[in-house]
Structures are given as C-alpha cells and as structure tokens.
Design goal:
Length: 475
C-alpha cells in the first residue's frame, strides 16, 4: 500500500539533494521556473530508487544553456531542436526541457515541436497519469493535474487524455503501457486497453528500432509476463511478434497437449528465476529471455494430430530457430543477440535425450561443442523448460541435468573441453593426404573433429592412420 506521507517526505529529500538544490537556485535567480518531471517523481512516491533526473522549465534552450553553464562541468545540446539541454551538475547527468505543447500529424511519430507556456499543459501531453506529475523544486510542491497520485494508489495505468487521442498521437505509447504494467505491477485501465485493441494497426508507423527498444525494456523487467499478456490480449503483439500470439493453440477433446502459450510464459518466468540464482546482481539477460519466450514458436507450424489422440511437433526446434532469426532481424536486433537466441532455440531439446539414457563422454563433448559460448544460457533454458506438474518427473529431469553439468566440469578438468580441436591441423591434413586447400580439407577436418569427440585423444600417429583409412574409403 502506497504511504503518501512517506512519499511526500521522499519528494522533500529529492528536492534537497545537491544537484537539485544547485539547479533550483540557478533557475530561480534567473527568474525561471524549474520542476522535476515524470519517472523520478513517480518513483519517489512509490519508494523506488530514482536514477536520471528529468527537469522541465519555462526557459527556452538558449536560456537553459546560459543558466547551467556556470554550475556544470559539461553541457550538450543534441536535443536543442526539441527543447532539451543536457548537463553534468554535481557529478550527475541531467536533462532540462522547455515546456512542450507538441502536435502530431497522425502519419509519423515525429511531432511538430511547439514550446508551451505552463507546466500543467506540458504534463497533460505525457503518456500516463502516473508519469504526468511534477515537483516544483523551488517550492517543493507536487503538481498533479491529471490524477496521477490517485492512479498510483489504485495501481492503474491510464492516459491523461482520451487514450484514442493519446495513442493516435504516438502509437509507441501502447507498447509503453505494457512495459509500465510489468515495471510497476499495475493494471491497464479498461478504456486504455480498448483503445490499444482499436488502434493496434497504427503501430505500423513506428520504426522497428523503437519497437525493439520497448520490447527489450519490457523483457528487462522483473515480471515481463504481465506486459506480454497485455500485448497478446489486445492483439498488439500480432503487429510485431505474431509468433507469440500463435502459441495459443486450440486443444480439442480428442487431442491433448499442454497449453504452449502458458508453458512458454512459465518457462520465461523460470528462466528469470534461474538467471537470478546463477548471475545475481547482473543486468537482465535479454537474449536468454527472448529464447525462453520464443523457444516453442515452431510448434504451431509443425503441429500434427496423430491417431489415438497424440499431438506431435517434430523438428519444431529447427523450424523455431529459423523463425526467430527472421523475426528478430525484422525487429533490428543486433547480430549477437539474433545468433544467441536462434542457437538456444535450436538446441533447447538436445538435453532431453540425455534424460532418457546416460550419454557417453563423446555425447557430452558434442553438447558442449554445439552450445559453444551459449552453454551457460542453455543450462538455464533447459532447466526452465521443465514445467511438468509431475513432481517425480521434474525431480528426475533436474537430477539428470545436475549430472550432465557435473560431467561437463569433470571433462573440463581432464581436457580443454571448450577448445577441442582435431589432433591434426589443416596444414598437416594437406601434407598427410597430399592435397591442396579446398573442400576436401574441410571434410577431413570434420572427420578428425568427430573422431576426437567420440574417442578422445588418440595421438598424432593414430590420428594420421585413421585419416588415411578414411581418405582411402572416400575414393
């Protein structure tokens, strides 16, 4: 329950901080208003930690720059066209923006920048009421023209104006509704949800990079599932990541399988839990979380209803990896993330063969080799993929994975498992076989690598003998 008395006290502490006090004096001496706006005010009231401070003022950019120069160690005006000046004050980075009264053309997300006259008018144009509050720093006075405090108390996300107008102005706000729902643990107000469903098609004017940025922020929250449900239930997910919505497969009375959509959300939450245990105090692993969410997206495309009521999804791992790569490329994710996610999806079923029967050392080596630098993530994803309610089965799978991880540690101690190479390099292969560089060298290299993985260290002489035998059989 939000304690407003404590929240007001935290606002006072925020206003008294060295950076805020320094700026407040400078702007007051210059005859201008100054207020902290948006997220820092919201978070102070909620008792959450505040980070970057955003300010708004009636001063125009040239005046802002003139005021902050004497009290800052650096200034930048890259956002001058939008009324924003950045500065480093008391060792902290701040951004100060002139009151805005923008208008949108409904075709692009680019606003016609217009400076406003009042703080209240500036706040009304913001995305949600809980972000449309400000703290006048000279008076330490909360300004809340749209009922943000009431919505904080109720745990509700609502737009300051008609949501159809707000989302029509900037469709990215619909994605932000899902993200803030997860970030704050708030419910999205019914009228706001209805507007998202109605206007979801307008997301097409938003660049893939912007959409990717919001998806990344959503996945970086402690509970992204809340926001994902908002996206799926309003249909907005279908506009940029339809593979997730498609996971809601129909289950008829004759063919039974687990709910793939709910399973995927559970895997995501369990992956986050395992991530926190293995890598505490680290930044959220978005690639891992994407892989957890998308690991079964190949199932709808490979689903087959068998006689007797069985349902199969043969090769959904391979199909899903390809689908994920294509979709993440369209969303402009970086190459490293795309490679990691598609590789994890491709390998996510590999372990379950181990659980059915103990692997040889060669099989364990192959598992490590194929996972490469994604092994730690694969450990997490594979463990998270166990969502059975059968406790005995879950314990058996967990025990099997404990065993494979222990064997990997043992093999690593015995040999450099992560850097296994054939015992003969490319030059030696050419010398032994009397061939020139070309595809044959690559095939011979693969033969020797498989031999190394299957049988361990043989020694150069034995490796050469096996290579010659293999080569003779190719003729």
């Amino acid at each position: 329950m939000l304690n407003m008395a404590d929240g007001v006290a935290r606002l006072g502490d925020l206003a008294a901080s060295p950076v805020v006090a320094t700026l407040a004096r400078a702007f007051a001496d210059a005859g201008h208003d100054l207020a902290i706006v948006g997220g820092p005010v919201r978070d102070a009231l909620l008792g959450r930690s505040t980070h970057d401070l955003d300010f708004t003022t009636d001063a125009h950019p040239d005046d802002i720059l003139r005021i902050v120069k004497p009290i800052s160690t650096a200034q930048w005006d890259i956002g001058r066209a939008f009324g924003t000046i950045g500065a480093r004050v008391q060792g902290e980075q701040v951004e100060i923006t002139t009151y805005r009264a923008d208008s949108y053309d409904g075709v692009t997300r680019k606003p016609t920048v217009e400076f406003g006259d009042t703080l209240e008018a500036d706040l009304v144009r913001r995305d949600f009421t809980v972000n449309a509050m400000a703290l006048r720093v000279t008076e330490v006075k909360l300004v809340d023209p749209t009922g943000g405090v009431e919505d904080l108390l109720a745990g509700v996300l609502r737009t300051p104006i008609d949501p159809r107008i707000s989302f029509g102005d900037d469709p990215l706000r619909m994605l932000r509704a899902a993200r803030f729902s997860s970030q704050l643990g708030f419910e999205v107000e019914e009228g706001t949800l209805a507007a998202i469903e109605e206007l979801r098609g307008t997301l097409s004017i938003v660049s893939p990079e912007r959409i990717q940025g919001e998806l990344t922020r959503l996945l970086g929250t402690d509970d992204p599932v809340r926001g994902i449900r908002v996206l799926v239930e309003t249909g907005l997910m279908e506009e940029f990541l339809p593979e997730v919505s498609a996971l809601r497969l129909e289950v008829d009375e004759h063919h039974h399988h687990k709910d793939v959509y709910e399973h995927s959300l559970t895997v995501l939450l369990q992956a986050i839990e395992h991530e926190g245990i293995r890598f505490p105090d680290q930044e959220p692993d978005v690639a891992l979380r994407l892989a957890a969410l998308l690991h079964d997206i190949g199932k709808p495309r490979t689903r087959k209803l068998e006689k007797g009521g069985a349902v199969t999804f043969h090769h959904h791992d391979i199909v899903g990896a390809r689908m994920a790569r294509k979709r993440l490329q369209a969303l402009r994710f970086d190459g490293a993330t795309i490679d990691a996610v598609s590789r994890l999806i491709e390998l996510h079923l590999r372990f379950f063969g181990y659980a059915e029967g103990a692997w040889t050392d060669a099989a364990v080596r192959r598992y490590v080799r194929d996972a490469g630098d994604q092994l730690e993530r694969l450990h997490i994803l594979t463990r998270a993929d166990v969502t059975t309610r059968n406790k005995r089965k879950a314990m058996r799978l967990a025990s099997a994975y404990d065993d494979i991880e222990a064997r990997i540690v043992t093999l690593r101690e015995q040999e450099e498992l992560d850097s296994i190479r054939p015992e003969l390099d490319g030059n030696r292969i050419q010398e032994v076989l009397g061939i020139s560089p070309g595809p044959e060298v690559g095939r011979a290299y693969k033969f020797l690598l498989d031999l190394r993985l299957d049988e361990g260290v043989l020694g150069p002489e034995e490796a050469e003998s096996r290579l010659r035998q293999w080569w003779a059989a190719q003729a």
